[in-house]
Design brief:
This protein is an alpha/beta fold and 192 residues long. The protein has five helices and five strands, in the order H-H-E-H-E-E-E-H-E-H. The chain has a five-stranded mixed beta sheet with strand order 3-2-4-1-5, covered by helices on one side. Belongs to the N-acetylmuramoyl-L-alanine amidase 2 family.
């Protein structure tokens, strides 16, 4: 019996390390659908693409989960995605929601999905105020990603707008991330 307990503990610790939940609200917690298909993302990743959803904002757990579910439903039913396109989504409540997660290829930036993580902020940051809890949630997620081997220690952060024709992640969020030490101003070396 003791051997079985030790084995279960070992598997649990290994699973936690591989998935590195990092305090992320899991799909089961926000009542998300399972993906129709998955493709595994080679890790560690060295590129993080920051976007915004251009949806309403949210401040409560209930409203943020509802918005994430709506995005997933739209992307699966109307756009034909296998799952929600972002790897992670950050709500105005300062929580990070699991999308495709650390392990799976997302569908956030055509031509870059197989080599990056796409992280979206719920809202329109051309207009909406950016909260410190949202920024801190992203910083903690990235730190945890490095600690758990999902991101290289020298990963680069870029804005969605640097890679495709979009205003994403909005002026306010774009201005914020441009001051970060991992910011990549010149994307010519990675541009498709």
């Amino acid at each position: 019996m003791h051997l079985i307990y030790c084995f279960i503990l070992f598997v649990t610790v290994q699973w936690s390390y591989v998935n590195g939940d990092c305090g992320v609200v899991s799909k089961s917690e926000w009542d998300g659908l399972n993906p129709a298909h998955v493709q595994y993302l080679p890790r560690p990743v060295d590129l993080v693409i920051i976007a915004h959803t251009v949806t309403p904002t949210c401040n409560t757990d209930q409203r943020c989960a509802e918005l994430v579910r709506n995005i997933q439903t739209n992307q699966i039913e109307n756009l034909g995605f296998w799952d929600i396109g972002y790897n992670f989504i950050i709500g105005g409540n300062g929580k990070v929601y699991e999308g495709a997660g650390w392990l799976h290829v997302g569908a956030h930036t055509r031509g870059y999905n197989k080599k990056s993580l796409g992280i979206a902020f719920l809202g329109n940051f051309n207009n909406d105020p950016l909260s410190s809890s949202m920024i801190n949630a992203l910083k903690e997620l990235l730190k945890c990603g490095v600690e758990n081997g999902h991101l290289t220690s020298d990963y680069h952060v870029v804005a969605h707008r640097q890679l495709i024709a979009t205003e994403s992640p909005g002026r306010k969020l774009y201005n914020e991330i441009r001051s970060w030490p991992n910011w990549m101003e010149d994307v010519s070396s990675i541009k498709n």
